[in-house]
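[Meeting: bench + compute handoff]

Bench side (C.D.) handed over the final construct sequence. Compute side (W.E.) agreed to return the predicted structure before the next meeting so the bench team could plan truncations. Sequence as handed over:
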Amino acid sequence: MGQVQAGIIPVTPFQQNCTILFDDETREGVIVDPGGDVDVIIQTIEENKISLKAIWLTHGHLDHAGGAAELKERLGLTIIGPHKDDLPLLERIETQARTYNVSGLRNVVPDQWLEDGDRVSFGDHEFEVYHCPGHAPGHVIYFDRNQNFAHLGDVLFSGSIGRTDLPGGDHQTLLNSIRDKVFPLGDDVGFICGHGPGGRIGEERRNNPFLRGL
């Protein structure tokens, strides 16, 4: 078994971190949050000879899920996640896209909803699923315990946290998710997030100004 590697493709005007997680030996992998720019995503996958097995979604906002339906159709993939509480967001992607004047994004319903405590995998790599509402009601994160690595979506950023002023957002709920689900993963866990650079959980716990007093 190889190591999990991560490649990031910034997509949509929101510069969302569409992430390819793949095994560096077998080149098998999954794509997390294909929010749009599907032609660019497919070109990157082909150039790097990645064999995609599934689409994983962290939550239902347009910049994370807007390209999932097209990518599923073009590559014959299964869409897994997020939690079912994000169905209203997933059903409003096209309406949201018109509001922000972003073209080419589509509503989507996943093939499989995820629950807190589920596990998803590709090849020999297993990820634990944690339901972390607050930024979005059905937000989930993915944690590879063997490699001390997590994909946190828009729950926690380097030096910041997810917005809570969008429909379904709640500031205290987000802080509770970070305290109860993210922090216990461990200070030495490295993470990728939905926008900007990643980091380590311990660094955010100690220094993130939004998390003082947690």
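W.E. noted at the follow-up: The mean pLDDT is 97. C.D. will use this when planning the next construct.
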